[in-house]
Amino acid sequence: MSLPVRRTILGLSGSLRRGSFNTMLLREAAGVLSEQTRIEIGSIRGIPLYDGDVECQQGIPESVVALKNRIVAADALLISTPEYNHSIPGVLKNAIDWLSRPPSDIPRVFGGRPVAIMGASITKRGTLLAQAAWLPIFFRLGGVPWFGDQLAISLTGNPFDAEGHLVDEMIRWRLESFVKGFAAFIAEQRRYCLHA
Ligand code: FNR
Question: The whole model's pTM is what?
């Protein structure tokens, strides 16, 4: 009898704010899945601003190496992105830029790795512009974006309570369906991937 395969999704929030709705969304997502696939929450906190001189003189910062290792150990990436000025948040882009150094390491870190993007923001369209803006970046990095569903949460209806839990049942249902759909996609991808 073969043992059940365990999958790990590494979740990254694009907001450093303590009360970040995107981090809350990620935490709620982590509670959705069964034992077979689990969501671990990583962080971009501590990653310095990208500086080519630092890279040349000191190499890749430890915080970046540690996050790279977490991505490599995971089967997939789940990004929870805010939208800033109709686009992506600079703090997460900065982290991704560091994670893409040196370029020779990109295939190991991002290549063939399923990526799902979700997000929460204050406008009615709830991060749709930011989500679209992430696509060319993951295309460049060789990730495999999942297009099976879309989760762009508008914060206008106040879907979280004071403890950071989702209280809007429709959004909870959409989150569950999104995360389960992504987990199924990962399992399907890995079935065809010889090294998985
Ligand atoms: C925003 N916000 C925002 N929201 C949006 O829907 N479209 C936008 O273009 C912007 N632009 C923007 C720029 C900057 C610099 C900030 C700080 C904020 C509001 C944003 O959706 C809101 O602050 C969210 O709560 C941010 O996500 P976290 O931090 O709660 O995860």
Answer: 0.95
Query: What tens digit of pLDDT does each residue of 109-141 get?
Result: 999 999 999 999 999 999 999 999 999 999 999
Dihedral (CA of 12, 13, 19, 21) sign:
negative
Cis upstream peptide for 102 (omega within 30°): yes
CA distances from 25 to 22, 62, 107 (A): 5, 27, 28
The preferred substitution site among 122, 128, 166 for testing ligand 1, maximizing ligand atoms within 8 Å of CB, is 122
pLDDT exceeding 70 applies to what percent of the chain?
A: 95
**Does ligand 1 lie within 6 Å of residue 20's CB atom?**
yes
